[in-house]
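Lab meeting tomorrow. Please check the following:
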Amino acid sequence: MKEEMKPLPKIDGDSKKFWEGCKNGQLLIQQCKDCNMFIYYPRIVCPSCMSSHLIDVESTGKGTIYSYTIAYRGAGLAYKNDVPYIVALIELEEGVRMLSNVIDCAPEDVHIKMKVQVSFEERDDYSIPQFIPH
């Protein structure tokens, strides 16, 4: 039986800079030059003021766990060796929230408001942002 591969991102025009940043060890988020709002996930207009004057800025990569769940059954065969694993909504210091995994942490140790730091997992030719306890 052929081993199933974990999914890889589908890079488009809006997300290209984000994934290039990840490849370089940078967690890039957007900031609106008109209202200064930080934005994640990458898009073409600010969801607050509808401005198209967006710039990419490097996040500190630090945040806290806003919410989480522990998966005891993998989301497909590619994840069967990872269970149990932690899926968390991370609130970055800049105020945006990002869904990701918390790694290098026992499921019983994870908790709301836990401090975390971005870490990148190399997967094929991609760098996938994940988070570790900080």
In short: The first strand starts at residue 28 and ends at 32. The beta strands are 28-32, 38-39, 54-58, 62-71, 85-92, 97-102, 115-123, 126-133.
